[in-house]
């Protein structure tokens, strides 16, 4: 990521109409063009958060992010470099019914088009490149996905300075801020199930997300660090259940445990682990990795992985 670049995020929003995939393009009034929905990062935002917010503002649609579709790079008229990060986003019938879009000074109209026609209508090569990657996934039957998200707890008090059981060690002030900051980034992927280690630092890390999306958390001992160190029963059943359910989930755990969670995810999905997967399990505090799976064939292996760090 270029530290001098203007950052933005967007998505290929898609749904099926009469059994055929259509994608959403926007007609921008001020620029007289047709493009994919996207917009600039606000201060303090993560890129996934930006993508979801901008889609809501430009199209009136509430979406959750799916597969990452890459980054476009170009130079703005001002001469500054710009990076736009994209995801796929399945638009549900419920989201369509609740759309709040009205034509305005920025976006004059929305249009759902078959992929081939959308490619012809888009004004910019960069947008077409992103659509081409989505098309490649769709042609492989990997448009509809869900994710298993592995989250490491936020910054906790130094164990050498904490007088009490390790499982009761709380977050620091910085850790509390990290937990609050990452909640919207996690929420952007639409998690439906939250699972956490029983350790207090994990409970405190996942609490802001649970409050934001109004979901309960299942606290389990099996993915806590003390259970891992003590060689308690494996986490296979927990990870396997999340894969079988086929709904995006977040598992909040500890640095030494997360590589084991990844190994179990690989076993549950028939994935041959490669270096990128292993790197994604080596997380800093309050960082998380999103492992995307084919909703129809999760045993076909991990389709894509992305890692997001805390901004604090």
Mean pLDDT: 94
The portion of residues assigned to helices is: 25-40%
| Tally of distinct domains | 2
Report the top-level CATH class of the largest domain. Answer: Alpha Beta
Number of strands: 13
Give the helix tally.
10
Tell me the CATH topology of the largest domain: Rossmann fold
The ordered string of helix (H) and strand (E) elements is: EEEEHEEHEHHEHEHEHHEHHEE
**Main sheet?**
7 strands, mixed
Tell me the overall shape: globular
CATH architecture of the largest domain: 3-Layer(aba) Sandwich
Global structural class: alpha/beta
**Strand share of the residues?**
25-35%
The end-to-end distance, rounded to whole angstroms, is 17 Å
GO biological process, one term: ATP biosynthetic process
GO molecular function, one term: bis(5'-nucleosyl)-tetraphosphatase (asymmetrical) activity
InterPro entries: His_Pase_superF_clade-1 (IPR013078), His_PPase_superfam (IPR029033), NUDIX_hydrolase-like_dom_sf (IPR015797), NUDIX_hydrolase_CS (IPR020084), NUDIX_hydrolase_dom (IPR000086), Nudix_hydrolase_domain (IPR051325)
Domain Nudix hydrolase: 4-135
């Amino acid at each position: 990521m270029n530290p001098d670049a203007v950052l933005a995020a967007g998505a290929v929003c898609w749904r099926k109409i009469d059994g055929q995939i259509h994608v959403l393009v926007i007609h921008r009034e001020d620029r007289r063009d047709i493009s994919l929905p996207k917009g600039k990062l606000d201060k303090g935002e993560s890129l996934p958060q930006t993508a979801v917010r901008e889609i809501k503002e430009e199209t009136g649609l509430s979406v959750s992010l799916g597969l990452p579709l890459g980054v476009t790079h170009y130079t703005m008229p001002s001469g500054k470099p710009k990076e736009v990060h994209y995801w796929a986003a399945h638009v549900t019938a419920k989201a369509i019914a609740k759309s709040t879009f009205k034509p305005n000074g920025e976006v004059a109209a929305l249009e759902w088009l078959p992929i081939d026609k959308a490619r012809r209508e888009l004004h910019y090569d960069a947008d077409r490149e992103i659509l081409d990657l989505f098309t490649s996934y769709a042609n492989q039957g990997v448009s509809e996905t869900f994710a298993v998200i592995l989250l490491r707890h936020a910054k906790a008090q130094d164990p050498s300075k904490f007088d009490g059981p390790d499982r009761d060690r709380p977050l620091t002030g910085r850790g509390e801020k990290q937990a609050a900051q990452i909640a919207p980034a996690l929420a952007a992927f639409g998690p439906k199930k939250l699972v956490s280690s029983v350790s207090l630092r994990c409970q405190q890390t996942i609490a802001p997300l649970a409050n934001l999306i109004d979901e309960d958390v299942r606290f389990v001992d099996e993915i806590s660090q003390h259970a891992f160190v003590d060689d308690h029963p494996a986490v296979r059943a927990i990870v396997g259940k999340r894969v079988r359910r086929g709904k995006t989930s977040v598992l909040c755990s500890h640095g030494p445990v997360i590589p084991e969670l990844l190994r179990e995810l690989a076993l549950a999905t028939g994935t041959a682990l490669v270096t990128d997967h292993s790197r994604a399990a080596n997380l800093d505090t309050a960082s998380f990795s999103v492992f995307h799976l084919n909703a129809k064939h999760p045993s076909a292996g991990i389709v894509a992985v992305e890692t997001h760090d805390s901004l604090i």
